[in-house]
Amino acid sequence: MSTKILIADDEPNILISLEFLMKREGYDVVLARDGQEAIDAIARERPALVLLDVMMPVKTGFDVCHEVRNSETLRDTLIVMLTAKGRDTDVAKGLALGANAYMTKPFSTRELVQKVKEMLEPAP
């Protein structure tokens, strides 16, 4: 069975390209278009990893990250924050809320795939 990844982003082009990229790498992909959809999908689908946009409608990626980390059943979910907000304070906030990694847009798809693999496949 392949590893499940949730991609949460309100930008359709980013969702489509990341979905294609992650499916090509062999992952099972679930999509969410806003923060509340992301929380619902994380609870329902239990993905191993979430690619989480910061600026989304309904709830921000920061809100989603905070809720996941405060949930007894979901707190072990790996979270990679994806955002155009690359200031040090934004990165610090994401990491302080419990994100496992933080990548700023635009990012290299190769770097993103490498980061996901590193996080999901434990070192030998």
Shape: globular
Percentage of β-strand residues: 15-25%
Largest sheet: 5 strands, parallel
Q: Give the SSE order as H and E letters.
A: EHEHEHEHEH
**Secondary-structure-derived class:** alpha/beta
Q: Count all strands and give the number.
A: 5
Mean pLDDT: 91
Rg, rounded, reads: 13 Å
Q: Record the strand order, biggest sheet.
A: 2-1-3-4-5
What's the helix count?
5
Q: Which regions are unreliable across 5 or more consecutive residues at pLDDT < 50?
A: none
Describe the structure.
Helix 2 (35-45) runs parallel beside helix 3. With 124 residues, the chain is of the alpha/beta class. The protein has helices spanning 12-24, 35-45, 61-69, 88-96, 109-120; strands at residues 4-8, 28-32, 49-53, 78-83, 101-104. It contains five helices and five strands. It starts with a strand and ends with a helix. It has a five-stranded parallel sheet with strand order 2-1-3-4-5, with helices on both faces. The radius of gyration is 13 Å and the shape is globular.
